């Protein structure tokens, strides 16, 4: 029997191959100006990919970045120039994330116009131009988070768990996605604990087997870091730029959001904890907001949505 959600999804006049192509062209037009850059963190991720290709030794890696192995490993396995392969992989991640956001908005009950707008919001933002072209793992993490949101809205908790596992292999804080699934009882206790155990085993295997011997690192809160961050105009500007226009739209769309999105509020707050902690420990910039886009955009797309028409009572 077809549910109202499935019927709504089927009625949308969206041609997904065409939409993906359009999103890919849009992402390319924004990313091409800084394509394949390597500064600060991105150089560390690029070196990790070079390590997997056997071009450098483990002594040249800098923790914790090599522990985020999945995206650099995929880039290293691709043929051709490594810099181009890594940047091209991130480009595909961004286009896929836009499509996933569109599908998630449809599953939430938004019309096709606003659902497509959700995909556009994923791309037409400062991070797509400023950060996505660099050789970072953030696009892969955002893609995994977008897939997680879509799976939750589609009522597919095991696909959400798979997205959480893959996301954890991209960035370690994505293990919280699995914590949320378990805490919200979206999957059975035994299955949730097994998924968490698998994610934890992967992180330990990377740390002590796949890339062993790196110097220990810790992130400890520091008032000096916070004080310095509050004086760093460039970082503050990048955070403000990453907030626009998605965060204001999400605030306005918070209350009128359709019912399927309401459980995602707790997920947004949970996933905001790692970047907030990072802000106390290390220098941060707009990427701490960028990583929350998959949880903010469905609410942003809900702003000024057209309400569902209530059925009319028959005339007496």
- Total beta-strand segments: 0
Low-confidence stretches: 6-10, 307-316
Radius of gyration: 20 Å
Q: Please provide the ordered H/E string of secondary-structure elements.
A: HHHHHHHHHHHHHHHHH
The backbone outline, from C-alpha atoms, is globular
The overall pLDDT, averaged over residues, is 90
In which range does the helix fraction lie? 55-70%
State the secondary-structure class.
Answer: mainly alpha
Largest sheet: none
Number of helices: 17
The percent range for strand residues is under 5%
Distance linking N and C termini: 33 Å
Describe this protein with a few key phrases.
316 residues; mainly alpha; 17 helices; disordered C terminus
Summarize the structure.
The protein is 66% helix and 0% strand.
Task: Describe the protein in words.
The protein is mainly alpha-helical and 316 residues long. Helices cover 66% and strands 0% of the residues. It contains 17 helices and no strands. The chain starts with a helix and ends in a 15-residue tail after the last helix. The relative contact order is 0.12.
């Amino acid at each position: 029997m077809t549910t109202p959600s499935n019927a709504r999804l089927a009625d949308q006049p969206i041609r997904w191959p065409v939409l993906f192509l359009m999103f890919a062209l849009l992402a390319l037009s924004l990313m091409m100006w800084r394509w394949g850059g390597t500064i600060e963190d991105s150089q560390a991720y690029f070196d990790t990919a070079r390590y997997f290709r056997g071009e450098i030794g483990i002594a040249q890696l800098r923790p914790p970045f090599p522990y985020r192995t999945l995206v650099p490993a995929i880039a290293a396995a691709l043929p051709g120039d490594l810099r181009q392969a890594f940047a091209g992989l991130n480009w595909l991640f961004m286009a896929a994330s836009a499509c996933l956001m569109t599908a998630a908005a449809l599953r939430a009950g938004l019309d096709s116009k606003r659902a497509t707008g959700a995909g556009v919001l994923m791309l037409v933002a400062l991070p797509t131009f400023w950060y996505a072209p660099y050789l970072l793992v953030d696009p892969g993490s955002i893609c995994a988070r977008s897939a997680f949101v879509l799976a939750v809205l589609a009522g597919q908790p095991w696909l959400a768990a798979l997205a959480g596992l893959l996301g954890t292999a991209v960035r370690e804080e994505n293990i919280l996605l699995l914590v949320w699934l378990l805490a919200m009882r979206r999957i059975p206790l035994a299955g949730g604990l097994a998924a968490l155990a698998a994610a934890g085993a992967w992180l330990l295997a990377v740390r002590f087997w796949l890339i062993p011997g790196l110097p220990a690192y810790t992130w400890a809160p520091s008032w000096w870091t916070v004080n310095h961050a509050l004086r760093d105009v460039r970082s503050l500007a990048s955070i403000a730029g990453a907030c626009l226009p998605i965060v204001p739209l999400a605030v306005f769309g918070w209350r009128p959001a359709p019912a399927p999105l309401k459980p995602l509020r707790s997920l947004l707050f949970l996933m905001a904890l790692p970047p907030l902690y990072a802000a106390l420990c290390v220098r941060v910039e707009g990427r701490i907001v960028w990583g929350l886009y998959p949880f903010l955009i469905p609410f942003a797309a809900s702003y000024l949505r057209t309400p569902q028409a209530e059925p009319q009572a028959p005339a007496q």
